[in-house]
Amino acid sequence: MVDTINFDQNPKSYSEFDFAPLAKLGEQLKAQRDKEQLMSLAALAPAASAPGAAPSVFDTGSGVSYSRKGGGDYGGAISNIESGGRYDLLGPVTKTGDRAYGKYQVMGNNIPVWSQAALGRQLTPQQFLADRDAQDAIFKHRFGQYVGKYGPGGAARAWFAGEGGMNNPAARDQLGTTVAGYERKFLGGL
Fold it and tell me: Which tens digits make up the pLDDT trace of 29-81?
């Protein structure tokens, strides 16, 4: 027979339990899952180069390629979360006075720098909003860089919270979405 623990009489509480080993294990499992996702997506690339095959892989400009279909539609997963696929969507104004623009909800302050890096020219938020091809190119370029550095799940966290906030899973935006919750939605959308 197993003895039951009566927590009212046990002086040790949950707050004294060391969760650090469990947290480390969770991080290791997540890193392994991200690596496996990248490897499975990379395996799709040779199929696209078969004679007569329709291209199904696009280059992000960062050396990272990923499939548009079958588990690697990063743009579709992000845009479904952010805008429902609407290129004309404006996000709410933030506390800093900035707002997000377009299909992938790029913050206005990022548009000039990101467009320069991706397109070789700076766009204003209004120009960005009016140019679907530019929105797609800028997303592919920046998100591709994030995938190369952090894997798919980490890229989603960086997209949502920026590289400075991506490792704070409980941080919330003004709509109440957490960094961890955003990553889960993204991975579920793949």
Answer: 666 666 665 554 444 333 333 333 333 333 444 444 344 333 469 999 999 99
Distances (CA, A) of 15 to 19, 29, 93: 9, 24, 39
6-24 tens-digit pLDDT: 545 554 554 565 666 666 7
Q: Does any domain span residue 7?
A: no
Query: Is residue 97 a part of any domain in this protein?
Result: yes
Residue 140 CB partners (closer than 8 Å, separation 6+): 58, 60, 61, 75, 118
Please name which of 104, 100, 120, 123 lies closest in space to residue 112, comparing C-alpha atoms: 123
Amino acid identity, position 90: L
184, HSE (Cβ side, Cα atoms, 13 Å): 7
Two tokens, residue 140: 């592919």
Q: Where are the alpha helices (DSSP H) in the chain?
A: 20-42, 45-48, 74-82, 111-119, 125-130, 132-161, 179-189
Cα 144–Cα 73–Cα 55 angle in degrees, nearest 5? 85
Length of the chain: 190
Which two three-digit tokens encode residue 44? 């799709």
CATH number at residue 123: 1.10.530.10
For residue 144, the enclosing domain spans: 66-189
- Work out how many domains the chain is built from and give that number: 1
